[in-house]
Every structure is written in structure tokens, then in C-alpha cells.
Amino acid sequence: MADTFRIIDTGVREGRANIAFDAALIEERQANRVPDTIRFLRFPPTALIGRHQDLSREVNLDYCKENDVGVVRRITGGGAIYLDEGQLGWELVFHRASLGIPALPDLAREICNAAANGLSQLGINAQFRPRNDIEVDGRKISGTGGFFDGDTLIYQGTVLVDMSAQKMVKVLNVPEGKLAKRKLDSAAERVVTLKELLGDQLPDIETIKQALTTGFTEAFGIKAEPGEITANEEELAEQYFREEIGTDEFVAEIDNPGGADEVLSGSHTGPGGTIESFVKLEGATKSILQRVLISGDFFVTPPRVVFDLEAHLLGTRVDEIGSAIEDFFINNDVDMLSVAPSDFAASITAALTSGEAANV
Q1: Residue 154 and residue 145 in contact, taking contact as beta carbons nearer than 8 Å
Q2: Is 257-358 assigned to CATH 3.40.50.300?
Q3: What pLDDT score was predicted for residue 179?
Q4: pTM for the whole thing?
């Protein structure tokens, strides 16, 4: 059995500061300076995009600027979400061996089931829906995601306690395909809040936190007790914020990659999400990859592996891309949540095919 998990609540923090604390917490856990941890957190109005997503495609930047909505890039994969004080964030940061479940897909399933069981104690019928949502009667009440960094896992989610779905729709550019897939007219219909479900019986935040904690402790046979945030965590979080996560450059690291001249784009959607590829070719016959950028709402761990894959493919002949991708994943320690090497190859192939079609 794992040692006792520490429970901390970092309150409402500016969005980039919240993500910087994630990075600090991971580093401190890797160094064994803090124990396995359950963290609760909240955001002011914030557009939060996944590590590999295209900023301008996912977020209505003009609306955010005009309405004081923060724009943040997180260090985990997945899709864009809107957060505000009416939502409760939760996350588990722990050593790979602590729960005795080594594989990311298995951990994701068990953590989501545990969170769903905890929320069900509030009087709702919460259920895990693969690959990473918790739903009530087909409507999303919690989105989740995570990754391994070495032997440390961060797995996080949100609970929609109370939220303006109309504001969410204005902040995020929700693809029509996502709505059509679920036969919904708008993104607002896709989500549901505890307030909508429970009305006057809506519990306070402390009760919701306790329900989630109980879900985790009962599912995994662990103990969890309130603990203290350390000075080292705060100092390290400030450093991450100042040097990387809090900067506009980090948030805009992927922004309209298809806007450059001679850049081909294509996408592939599979069980693990959508992968978008932007490629530029070189050589007399345009048969060599000069540059490739991979974007989307998928989960791989560690997240930096995508950048390593992009570097690995530079200079690859077009007809050797599939084998180069297979070689990369064979020779690197990568965990993936419902995506496969063939999905990355299919996305790049779609981009190349779009170029062939344009030349017809």
C-alpha cells in the first residue's frame, strides 16, 4: 500500500500560475521532497489549451482580451477547456509504483472511475466514458488527462460545479465535428453542471472535495490527510512561471502553423483524439521533410516526446515516413492514451495528400 497521500488546496490562482505550480509539484515529487499528493485548485475566467494545441484555432483571442479572460497553455495534452471560479480542479501527483498500476491507459480508467464514484455520492449518476471524460446521462461533467514524467504521474480533471455555458462557447472555438459526432446543436448542450443537476441541493466546495477524496481513497485503498504547501514548491512555481509557463511566448508556441508559405496541413482523427500535421518539403522533387509540426488534442507521455518526434523526422524522405515513425516509437519509452504510431503517420500522410490534391 502507498504511503499516505497529502491533500492540499491552492485556492483560486491566476491560470498560468496554476500550471506553473503543477510543474513545481511534479519536480518536488520526483525529488522525494513532497509525498504523493491530491491537489484541489480553482481558476479565474481562463481559456486553457492542451500542450500541443494551436492557440488561435482553439481560442477566440479577441473575446478573451476584451473580457479579461486569461489564456494559458498547460503542460498536459488534451483539448481546450474554459474554467472559472465555478469549477473545481483536482489532480493526483504520485510515484508510478504507488498504486500498483503501471500503464497510463489503465491508470486513466481507474482514476476516472474513482472520481465518478466519488461524485456519485453527491446524488448524481456519474460514469466514466473513454477515453477521458466523466459524464452524467451522456453530458460531460468532468474532463481529465495526465502524463508520466519519469516515474511520476500527474493526472488531473475538473468538476463543473456552476458555469456559464454561453461564455464557454464565446471563449472557445469548438469544432463543429465534435458536436455533430454527438448530435448536439451547441457546445453548451455537451456539458452539464452540478448546479443544473442538483438545484437547491447543490453542495458546497468542501463537500465536493470530500466526495472526490473518498472516491480515490476507497478505490485505491489509500489514506489521504490534509498537508502543507512547502516553501520550495512556491519558489519553484514562481521560477517556472517567470522563465517559461507564465510567458506569452510559451502560450503562443504553437499558433497558426499552417499560415506560412508552402506549408501543407492534414489531420487524422482516431480513438485517441485528433492529430494535425503541418509539413514543409524541400529538395528538387519536394520529397524530403524540411519541417514538421504536430498539433492536436491527443495524450502522449511525456509530452516532450512529440517535439522529439518532430526532430527525428527532419530530413526524412516522404516514402520513408511510416518506417521512421515506427522506429522512433520502438526506440523511445512512450506511453500513449488510445493513440498509436500509425495515427501520427496517417496525419502526416493526410498533409502530404492535400499537397498532391492542390497540384492536380
Answers
A1: no
A2: no
A3: 40
A4: 0.85
